Request: fold
Amino acid sequence: MCEVAGVMSRKTQPSTGIGERLRALREAKGKTQEQAARELGLVSGTVSRWERELGSPQAEQLRALAQYYDVSLDHLILGTPSEPSVHSAELHRFLATKLGRYAQQRGLVKMLRSLAYDGPITADIYRDIVKVFRDREEAEQDAEIDPDLPKNPRDGASKRDR
Reply:
């Protein structure tokens, strides 16, 4: 991600258009237009049109782009300098783990990105938070199978402990 910040501060200045910023961010991420479109859930060619400034992203798409490229909306729209979020490197490190993939499958990434915490959020903190969600889900599944089991994972053993 530091690479992305370097590209933004070197290549992207307030006078450039959103299309050029989008292209620079995509290239810094090492993605083709097709890959970026697929990962963003867009129709093929949309990214190309935006980069050539033949169209513009809507508000929801701008938010998705800012998250995808890990920049502020101000940077995306106005070209103001932007740094990746403080916790993005640790979040990306966590998402590469088995539990991180679980978080992605369960749609927890947005919540993890929005965490506010006094101090740095490490991959270990993300792991502990997602474990709580996973343990709660397992306890609910166990309760469906055996209603006599404790509902709170802290009240009894989880599947892994049995």
Remarks:
- The longest helix spans residues 123-145.
- Confidence is low (pLDDT under 50) at residues 1-15, 158-162.
